[in-house]
Amino acid sequence: MRLGRREHPGIFLKDCSGRLVKDVTVHHAPGMGLVAQRCADIALHGFNVMRRPGAGRWVTATADAVHFTYCRGQIELEHCLFENQLDDPLNVHGIYARIEECLSGDTLLVQLIHDMQVGVDIASPGDTIQFVDNGSLLAYAEAAAASVEKIERPLHPHPL
């Protein structure tokens, strides 16, 4: 029911704060209905991911209706309808990354593992980062990021 990747959301918010998305309906998105990354205090009022009546289309979003990654503050949903998407109605989370190498006493090389995470900024200077045990997912340490350098690597071809 989905061709290719889910990288084209209906609405994309990044690095913003205090945004209100009001009285918007997404009838179809070849990805998620709305994606918010590294945002603060986002409100959705009357935001719908729903079938267009009479259109004959069965699928609205080919992934989640709304997806919030690395957001902070308050996420408010009021009078929203999410239907017929091919994944979750709502996700709010961060992303786990793997420590590839300890380059020095205070410098780590970190890799995003899943190919759908490519391009997501996982930290900014001053952000607190928790380190978790891979087996238990329990935090064992935390630190503040002093600086962050993003290293882009070529994408591997993704099969349809």
Would you give an account of this structure?
This protein is mostly beta strands and 160 residues long. The protein is 0% helix and 42% strand. It is built from no helices and 12 strands. Strand 11 and strand 12 form a beta hairpin. The protein is elongated, with a radius of gyration of 18 Å. The termini are close together.
Q: Could you name the key traits of this structure?
A:
mainly beta, four-stranded parallel beta sheet, 0% helix, 160 residues, elongated
Strand proportion, as a percent range, falls in 35-45%
- Strand arrangement within the widest β-sheet reads 1-3-5-8
Helix amount: under 10%
Radius of gyration: 18 Å
Order of helices and strands: EEEEEEEEEEEE
Give a quick precis of the structure.
Helices cover 0% and strands 42% of the residues. By secondary structure, the chain is mostly beta strands.
Topology:
Blueprint: E1 11-14, E2 17-26, E3 34-37, E4 40-49, E5 66-69, E6 72-78, E7 81-82, E8 90-93, E9 98-104, E10 107-111, E11 128-132, E12 139-144
Parallel strand pairs: 1-3, 2-4, 3-5, 4-6, 4-7, 5-8
Antiparallel strand pairs: 9-10, 11-12
